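thought: fold this chain, then report.
action: predict
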Amino acid sequence: MMADQVSRREFLARSSAMATGLALGGAAGAAALDGGEVRRQTGRGDGMIQLAEGGRTEYVIVVPARPTPQERKAAEDLAEWLGEMTGAEFSIVPDSQPRRPREICLGATNRLAEAGLGGLAESLGDEGYAIEVAGERLFLEGGRLRGPIYAVYALLEEDLGLRWYTPEATLVPRRPNVAFAPRARRSLPALTIRDPFYEAAFDGTWSLRNRTNSPDAPVPEEWGGHVTYALFVHTFNTLVPPEEYFDSNPEYYMLDANGNRSPQQLCTTHPEVIHIATESALRILRERPTARVISVSKNDGGGTCLCDRCRGLDEAEGTNAAALLYMVNRVAEAIEDEFPEVTVSTLAYLETIKPPKTIRPRRNVAIRLCTDNCMWSHPFTPAREIEAFREAMEGWAAICEQIHIWDYCVNFSHYTAPMPNLDAIADNIRYFVANNAKGVMEQGAYQSVGAERDALRSWVLAKLMWDPSRDLRELETDFIRGYFGPAAPPILEYNRLLRQAGKDHAEELRDPPGGIRYEMDHPFLSDEFLRRADELYDRALRLAGKGVIRARVERDRLPILYVKLCRGPEYVGAGYGALIEEFERIAHEVGLTHIYEGAPDVEAKIAAWREAAGQ
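observation:
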């Protein structure tokens, strides 16, 4: 597709080798838009709130007398961003101070009860948030982890128009006069694990603002933390190390078709194997008290034990997942009392994808279902349209309360390749959630920034993972207009062009040669497509002028340059050498280091192009 001593990114890289109003920085760097008054009506409100007038405000931010770290962080961020937006100073005061007519009450303040909102947080779980209005008072409340911070950023984004598109690109409408009708609402995430697995999404501050919780986007525990794995996947060798046990106890390991014991997998019905795996899991969880998921899953590469116990169970249940789940359930049962908040995850992958007839995962077990049998070979087709995956998805959904999805959404041989698959990915997320998915990892370009539309993808996926009902086109348009500013119109047109190319070649893309690793001569990357894309990016560069917007357009154009360079000097002609120089310059400016999943390879790729050009 981890050993416990390396990060997910390192592990996956090793495995693959083997197999306008825009600002940079934080609030202080936010550039002003034109003056005027913001009035944003997003739904039912309890009347207009005059948040600021003439760069001054009568509002204070009220927090509990003893705020939690999350409430303190939320209040500080709210004061900072409202100040940037309006120029006014928003003071933070404890709820022990006398009540004022105009307050933004944040967290579990003593103001909640008198407004009839007592016990509000109890309905918000770990990460949900609520925005309520009572007269001229605004209430922001959240669940016990990141909830209060999410409430703040929901208000700023959804009611006041701020955006955090990337760690470097922030949109702040700066107005001295702000009156708006806040929309009363309560929101809980559709997924408890929201993981756009792109390098572009691994900034902890960006993650906090956009409500993802990827293990690779670190957020301090005092601000609610992030999802952490005690062990990730392919963990049999960690739980029952063959270098420690195989020589003395070969019966702990799989019996292969030749009647030999192999350390490739465990014998998952052996009582002593289950005992050792359980003790290992307990030890690891004690060493990592913040972990919320531990994987008990087969080593990569397939293979299953054919001893009488394992084979008999698998044959009776009609799947190789049966003997695996036998052990997983027992480990989960053994750790539950000491670690009630930990989920034991295992893989429905390769030969274990089919659910068993009668065995059921325990309530603290999650099935991590991989889309290898659909999105790997059919990367542009929604997963629900592939019969084998649909049967597995809906079969596990019928017997398991929590499913974690491992989805694939990038060309792993060409991270920079144009890829018209966002419609399929959005459809997938909705389908997963409708079938008991509680976690989704969208595996993209996790080794390097600068991959195809990675900034847009990360932001759009973040929004869909919180609320899959969001409209994909609206999200794409929001990002492109905000991120590219004056250069947005041709970039919007390019995205329509790419989507249309996918539609025009739908049959060829349903089962492309190479599957997700298709080459750069695929018919949808036609001469006409490349010609039109160049025209649009040339126009975008003219509109961008100089500076940060131009750099963003150039980064976005890398996939088009890449296709032409892969086609070679015979395709490009006399300008091939100049195209190499352009790609190299942009790649270095962006920080692109990986094109192929594995070791850094950009420099080697450029050298190969130069050799082809006779340089």
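thought: worth noting. The chain is about 40% helix and 15% strand.
final: tokens above.
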